[in-house]
């Protein structure tokens, strides 16, 4: 109760800080379209070799620093021990560092002098030949809980199957997209060949549409491939997590899932090769189109040189006889020239065929090399799966054999321990008798010290209890003082609750103040505060808080009706006019603050009484009195009595709360 009063006497403040941070990161990745030149393969090969070399160098560098990592590499990677021994040398044995001797600091504790205890004569220790009980301890690994392992395997299998299903859907979508891309590229090549062969009757719109369709499907293909690669990476991540977890590392689904992931990668790479092959074939038709277009442009230039004034592309124009003769002569010359070129081309045909065959052989070799790389990659991944499957099978056999050996070792160790225990029991019985005798002597000494220490503490407790009597009396007086102050505050706020009217509810404060005087006769501060109470409050008391609120409602109503009556007063007409105007003034609910700035020269009576009403409803009589003191004329005269009574209530309540705070501080000071 006293602490509650102390908390009520202090001001409280709360601050709340709301902080919301949202971070959204979006990473969009795409695979670039497959290149079509041999330089891209060389760059990829160089980049792959560089990355592999950097990875191998980093692995060897870390293995030279961390022997455990080197041991892991040598046991998991085939032929890795030969490479590490050749590059880093043999493993160096760790130098054993002797442990530092432990030391302890003893604190000196002052204790009373022990009482003299008669020491018994010491007996000669019994000599017993020690028995060597040191034996190599074999740690038997504890088996994990089968239920926990089964639950972990079920959870992992469900997660792995869900990942496999999601990856399979994406792979099927990517395969379908790549097949559509191959079909679109082949369709574009066929339409391009038809348009070139058709000459002037060619429909190039279909060629453009097929090209746009092929490019659109290529973009969809790349997006689907990137998405499927991401799902394959997620599958590999789940597989890696399963390998790290000892509970699910032996699950047969791991190897099947790894084999499936390798198969998915191989399918994507194989379809990429088909897309590249289709694009190479389309590129040949593009070259064919360029040659046809070039020959037609050359023929148009020659005709333009012969007939500069004739529009060759015009449909309705007619040629003259001279122009026709010139055109026929040029055609004969061109035919002779083409015959000679045909003869030369027939001679050079074998060379051109050889060159074309060489180019086709190079393209086929590149595709074959890419297919070989894909097949090597697939075979390597399959070998990794097979090695892991063999390792898993061998590990199972090793674990069974190790368990049998450990059982035999544990049985032999148990027999050895039984023999040692029988021998040591005899030695223990003899040593225990001596230890019991020494312990009894030590316990007697310790008991004597504890008794003397307890007597010292008891003496200190008696001294503290004797000095605490005065503080207890002070604490009781502070409690009585605080209760009397609380009664005083209740009397000021609520008065005589059984009173029928305002005057009857005013409760004299003389009785409560006399109780406080008696409780704090020697407290000069309390006596001075009590002397400030007005005599009227001692004999009659003050108006209660609720009575002041009720009276204010009447004051508010009358002041609102007479708001237009100034200090000079007025006749019946002025009062009637003020009353009528007050009827048209709407009292809208508003919120005011004690920190609001008020222009006393321009503020009107309605705003003053509205502010006062808000403060009275909020229980802030202090600010209500300050605002009402701005009233002038008839409203100010009517509110004068209420202001005086409220000031008297506030002054009396302030003195009472001051006594309550002093009582709370006095009570806290006396608490121990």
Automatic annotation (TrEMBL):
<dbReference type="Pfam" id="PF09731">
    <property type="entry name" value="Mitofilin"/>
</dbReference>
<comment type="subunit">
    <text>Component of the mitochondrial contact site and cristae organizing system (MICOS) complex.</text>
</comment>
<feature type="coiled-coil region">
    <location>
        <begin position="340"/>
        <end position="419"/>
    </location>
</feature>
<keyword id="KW-0472">Membrane</keyword>
<comment type="similarity">
    <text>Belongs to the MICOS complex subunit Mic60 family.</text>
</comment>
<keyword id="KW-0496">Mitochondrion</keyword>
<dbReference type="GO" id="GO:0061617">
    <property type="term" value="C:MICOS complex"/>
</dbReference>
<protein>
    <recommendedName>
        <fullName>MICOS complex subunit MIC60</fullName>
    </recommendedName>
</protein>
<dbReference type="InterPro" id="IPR019133">
    <property type="entry name" value="MIC60"/>
</dbReference>
<dbReference type="GO" id="GO:0042407">
    <property type="term" value="P:cristae formation"/>
</dbReference>
<keyword id="KW-0175">Coiled coil</keyword>
<comment type="function">
    <text>Component of the MICOS complex, a large protein complex of the mitochondrial inner membrane that plays crucial roles in the maintenance of crista junctions, inner membrane architecture, and formation of contact sites to the outer membrane.</text>
</comment>
<keyword id="KW-1133">Transmembrane helix</keyword>
<keyword id="KW-0999">Mitochondrion inner membrane</keyword>
<keyword id="KW-0812">Transmembrane</keyword>
């Amino acid at each position: 109760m006293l602490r509650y009063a102390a908390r009520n006497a202090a001001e409280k403040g709360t601050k709340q800080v709301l902080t919301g941070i949202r971070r959204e990161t979006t990473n969009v990745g795409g695979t670039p379209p497959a290149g079509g030149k041999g330089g891209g393969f060389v760059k990829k090969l160089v980049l792959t070799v560089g990355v592999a070399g950097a990875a191998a160098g980093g692995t060897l560098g870390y293995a030279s620093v961390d022997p455990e990592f080197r041991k892991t590499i040598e046991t998991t990677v085939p032929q890795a021990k030969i490479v590490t021994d050749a590059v880093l040398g043999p493993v160096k044995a760790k130098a054993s560092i002797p442990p530092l001797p432990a030391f302890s600091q003893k604190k000196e504790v002052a204790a009373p002098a022990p009482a003299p205890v008669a020491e018994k004569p010491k007996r000669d220790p019994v000599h017993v030949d020690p028995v060597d009980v040191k034996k190599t301890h074999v740690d038997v690994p504890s088996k994990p809980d089968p239920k926990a392992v089964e639950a972990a395997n079920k959870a992992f299998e469900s997660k792995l199957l869900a990942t496999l299903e999601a990856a399979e859907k994406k792979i099927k979508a990517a395969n379908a997209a790549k097949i559509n891309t191959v079909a679109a590229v082949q369709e574009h090549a066929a339409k391009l060949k038809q348009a070139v062969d058709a000459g002037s009757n060619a429909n190039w719109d279909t060629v453009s549409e097929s090209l746009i369709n092929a490019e659109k499907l290529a973009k969809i293909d790349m997006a689907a491939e990137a998405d499927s690669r991401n799902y394959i990476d997620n599958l590999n991540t789940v597989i890696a997590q399963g390998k790290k977890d000892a509970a699910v590392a032996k699950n047969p689904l791991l190897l099947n899932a790894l084999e499936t992931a390798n198969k998915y990668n191989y399918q994507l790479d194989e379809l990429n090769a088909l897309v590249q092959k289709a694009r190479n074939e389309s590129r040949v038709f593009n070259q064919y189109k360029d040659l046809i277009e070039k020959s037609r442009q050359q023929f148009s230039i020659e005709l333009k040189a012969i007939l500069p004034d004739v529009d060759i592309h015009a449909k309705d124009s007619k040629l003259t006889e001279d122009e026709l003769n010139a055109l026929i002569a040029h055609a004969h010359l061109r035919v002779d020239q083409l015959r000679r070129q045909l003869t030369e081309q027939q001679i050079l045909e074998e060379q051109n065929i050889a060159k074309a065959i060489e180019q086709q052989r190079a393209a086929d070799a590149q595709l074959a090399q890419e297919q070989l790389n894909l097949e090597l990659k697939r075979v390597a991944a399959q070998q990794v799966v097979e090695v892991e499957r063999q390792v898993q099978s061998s590990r199972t056999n090793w674990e069974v054999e190790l368990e049998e050996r450990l059982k035999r070792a544990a049985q032999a160790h148990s027999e050895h321990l039984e023999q040692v225990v029988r021998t040591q029991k005899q030695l223990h019985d003899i040593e225990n008798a001596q230890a019991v005798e020494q312990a009894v002597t030590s316990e007697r000494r310790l008991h004597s010290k504890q008794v003397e220490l307890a007597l010292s503490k008891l003496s200190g407790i008696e001294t503290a209890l004797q000095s605490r009597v005065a503080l207890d009396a002070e604490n009781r007086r502070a409690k009585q003082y605080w209760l009397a102050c609380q009664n005083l505050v209740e009397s000021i706020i609520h008065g005589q609750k059984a009173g029928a009217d305002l005057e009857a509810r005013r409760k004299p404060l003389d009785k409560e103040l006399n109780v406080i005087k008696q409780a704090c006769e020697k407290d000069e501060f309390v006596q001075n505060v009590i002397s400030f109470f007005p005599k009227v409050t001692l004999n009659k008391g003050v108006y209660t808080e609720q009575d002041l609120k009720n009276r204010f409602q009447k004051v508010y109503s009358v002041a609102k009706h007479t708001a237009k009556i100034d200090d000079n007063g007025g006749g019946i007409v002025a009062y009637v006019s003020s009353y009528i105007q007050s009827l048209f003034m709407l009292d809208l609910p508003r919120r005011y603050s004690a920190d609001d700035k008020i222009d006393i020269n321009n503020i009107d009576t309605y705003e003053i009484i509205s502010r006062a009403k808000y403060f009275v409803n909020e229980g802030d009589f202090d600010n209500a009195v300050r605002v009402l003191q701005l009233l002038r004329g008839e409203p100010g005269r009517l509110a004068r009595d209420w202001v005086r009574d409220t000031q008297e209530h506030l002054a009396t309540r302030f003195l009472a709360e001051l006594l309550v705070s002093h009582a709370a501080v006095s009570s806290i000071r006396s608490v121990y």
